[in-house]
Amino acid sequence: MSAFLPQLDDKDFTQLMQEARSMIPALAPHWTDHNPSDIGITVLEAFALVTEALIYQTDQLGDDTYAGFLRLLGNNNEASDLQTRTYQTLTAYRQIQSIVTLDDCDKVLTQIITAQTTEKIKVVQTTIRLDDKVSNAFEVVICLKNGKDLTVDSEGTHSYLQELEEAMQARAISGIFIHVKSIALVAVNIEITVGLVAGFDVVNEKKHLEEALKNFFDPEFGWHDGRGWRIGANVYFKDIYAFLESFPSVKFVNSIYNPTTDGAKFLLNNNDDDLGRYLFVGGGSIQTGVYGVKMEKDDVLDVKELTINLEGY
Fold first, then answer.
1. Quick one: CA torsion of 127, 128, 129, 131, rounded to 10 degrees?
2. How many helical (H) and strand (E) elements, i.e. helices and strands, does the chain have?
3. At 291, phi and psi to the nearest 5?
């Protein structure tokens, strides 16, 4: 375990003499003899020698002195060794101590989450913004994962969020308010029909595609880059087309939502009555076609059922 400590013994005799000689023309322009035989140079060498010794001694602080400095900085943990105490103290002072800006809020949130991570509950994604209803308030939206399931409004989630809010509020300056809340899950059933390239195992490929598409919407490791589906991101069907068609086994993808046929469907809340969220082509109606689903700023898609039908099988 190491920590950055400044090196005070950073100049030797030669460097001190070079620095002294360089100042002579400015401070004493009539002093032109800079040879070792000059009495003035001899005096400078004597001062340089003493200065080098003083600098060396300054850098040779004993353990008792370091321990005294650490006590002044609030580290009274005498049980730990000196190097560990020094590392702990410097690390603590490099952390953001107070929340003043959104950037401070983000850094403090990361520090607290790292310190409070448990095996039962894991923070997979966060969003921080100014609260549009309360002045001088920051709104922190947390996406938690309990095992393989996203958790919303469970007892464990509520307790964790409350503790997180209290810890962050304790770091906020007077007049700044922190509100921590969970994501909102939007339940959806997805059914899609794709054309399969000849030669692939039908049963295994169907299972593989269904698992891959469900993971595509995962807030922890979803999306094309594997960094997670962002909180509040709209669902555009073209992204689903592109994702499925990136598989060598997929020849084509049928329309994801087409209410006039028996083709694939993207059904919100287990039914297709919630039309307010659908994005219609040209801003029209359901007859003009749907190209996506609008999500609110705290929404995360919760795929309840996902079925991929293979055309011709």
1. 100
2. 8, 11
3. -120, 0
Indicate yes or no: pTM above 0.90: no
* Residue 212 · residue 205 · CB < 8 Å: no
Axis crossing angle, helix 202-216 with helix 237-245, rounded to the nearest 10: 140
Distance CA 150, CA 165 (A): 20
Which helix (H) or strand (E) element contains residue 213? helix 202-216
Structure tokens at 13: 């005799």
Task: Report phi then psi at 292, rounded to 5.
Answer: 175, -175
Do residues 92 and 123 make contact, with C-beta atoms less than 8 angstroms apart? no
CATH 3.30.300.20 maps onto the chain at: 102-182
Tens digits of per-residue pLDDT, 263-299? 445 666 544 455 677 777 776 655 567 788 889 999 9
Q: What is the pLDDT of residues 231-255, one digit of tens each?
A: 999 998 889 989 999 999 999 888 6
**Measured between alpha carbons, how far is 132 from 129 in angstroms, rounded to an integer?**
9
Tell the CATH superfamily of the 102-182 domain.
Answer: K homology (KH) domain (3.30.300.20)
How far CA 270 is from CA of 91, 151, 177, 231, 294, in Å, comes to 50, 19, 38, 21, 16
CA gyration radius, the chain: 33
d(CA 313, CA 303): 24
85-103 pLDDT, tens digit each: 888 888 777 666 788 888 8
